[in-house]
Structures are given as C-alpha cells and as structure tokens.
Amino acid sequence: MKKHLLILVLLLSGGTAFSQMNADYNYSITLRGYGAMQMPKLFNETDPVQFINSYFSGIMVKFNDNQINYRLGGSYLKQGKTFYNNCNTCEVVTGDVTDYTFKVGFEKNMNFSRVQPYVGADLGYRANRFVGTSMNANPLKAQVAADATLYPNKMETSKNGFLLSPVVGIKFHPAAQFTVFVESSLDFFYSYERQEAVTEDANNVRSFTRTNKSEFLLNPVSVGLSFHLGSNK
Fold first, then answer.
1. Is 4 helix (H, G, I), strand (E, B) or coil?
2. Phi-psi region of 15 (alpha: psi -120 to 50; beta: other; left: phi over 0)
3. CB-hemisphere CA count at 13 Å for 58?
4. Helix (H) or strand (E) holding 12
5. Distance between CA atoms of 12 and 175, rounded to whole angstroms?
6. What is the pLDDT of residues 182-193, one digit of tens each?
7. 122 near 81, Cβ under 8 Å?
8. Distance CA 73, CA 76 (A)
9. Which residue of 20, 196, 206, 224 sits 20 to 30 Å from the alpha carbon of 184, by its own alpha carbon?
10. Which of the four pLDDT bands, split at 50, 70 and 90, describes residue 168?
11. Is the pTM of the predicted complex or chain greater than 0.90?
C-alpha cells in the first residue's frame, strides 16, 4: 500500500514540475489547425445554424504568467457559400464569404498537471463580407420567366462589429516546448450591417438597407498547437 502511495505521489509531483516548466517560457505561438465555426447570418438565409470547417485559419500569441496566459490573435477565412434565402423555394444565393477577426483576452489554467483544463474570455472585432448572386429557386417561376430572360440579382452584405467570447478548453503537454489544445467558444457579435441587392435587368432596381444586429455564434471545437519560446531560466 505504501509503495502504491509513493508511486502516486511521484507521478503527481512529476506532472506538477512538468507543467511548471511551461511557465518558464515568456510567450507562446499558437496555430489553429482545425476549427468548426458558425458564421454570421447572411440576409434571410433559411438555415443559419450551419457549421463550416476551417483549416489553418488562425494564429495567436500568448504571454505566459504562471497560471494565467494573456492572448492576442486573429483569423482569416475566405470560402464559397451557397444557401437558400427567404425560403427553400424562393431564392438560391451563391457567392464568397470573407471573414476577419481580431481578439485580445486571457485564459486561466485550472491545475498544474500534464492535462490542463482552462477557462477564459476574449474581446475583439469582426469584419464579415459576402458578395454573390441570387437566382429564383422555384422551377415553375423560372420557366415562366424564361421567355423574358432570367437575370441573376447581385447580392452584397457586410457586418462589422464587436465580439465578446467566453472560452473553455483543455491542454495536453507532451513536451515542455509545445502544447496541444482543444477549445470551444461562444461569440456574442454586435454589428452594423449593410445590405445591397441589384437586379441586372432592364429595370436595374437597387435596394439598400442598414441595421444594427446582435447574434450568438457557436464555435464548438478548435484544435491547435502551441510552441513555447523565450525561456526565462
């Protein structure tokens, strides 16, 4: 029994010493290898709760202070997107989404072991823009309009605003110089939105709206790798 207790104490001591070695590095460079994220809603899309996959789209610098790390990072994503607008038989919209985020925040480690859960929060800015075209999604209406030549509508929207993001995650330290992490976050996004649509027919009708909106966007999983630099030993 005493032998088992001694082994357990040695393992816990080794885990603590190993974790504290990471505090001996002044900062870390963190790369997000994979992320599943919910993008801001576009126009009146019928299924806005969709998660898209992103790869190597974010980078972050962390400044280490024992159990607390201060975070400064950003991300960039550009992807094609197709969705139904207003209803599934109204319009189908196709185009490109460009998304930028810049965040600053902190994370607090919950223990001093090889496997570390952590919580944190970020505050930042987001710019999201979509440019594309819409076509009639109802085949009956499309057939009726075929004789008059069916033109696509040009669609453009942009959202710019502030982010508040609580974060929860877990880290694994296979070596003192690098860390693997998995985290989830929820973005509260308050934005100024500008929408524009132009019909490319003889009438050339242009519609333009401006609104302020707030929405919650879930990022269920983000996986990446941190490299620890600047030893202060």
1. helix
2. alpha
3. 26
4. helix 2-22
5. 16
6. 999 999 999 999
7. no
8. 11
9. 20
10. very high
11. no
Residue type for position 190? Y
Which amino acid appears at position 164 of this protein?
L
- Please list, in sequence order, all residues whose beta carbon lies within 8 angstroms of the beta carbon of residue 23, skipping any fewer than 6 positions away: 64, 65, 66, 67
Residue carrying the six token digits 């992103």: 54
Would you say 115 and 172 are in contact if contact means Cβ atoms under 8 Å apart? yes
- The closest of 161, 218, 211, 216 to 43, measured between CA atoms, is 211
What is the C-alpha to C-alpha distance for residues 108 and 154, in angstroms, rounded to an integer?
46
Tell me which residue of 190, 43, 210 sits closest to 130, measured CA to CA.
43
From the list 36, 120, 34, 130, the residue with the least C-alpha distance to 72 is 120
The structure tokens listed for 114 are 């090889």
Q: What would the pLDDT profile of 52-111 be if each residue is shown by its tens digit?
A: 999 999 999 999 887 899 999 999 999 999 999 888 888 899 999 999 999 999 999 998
Neighbours of 191 (CB within 10 A): 21
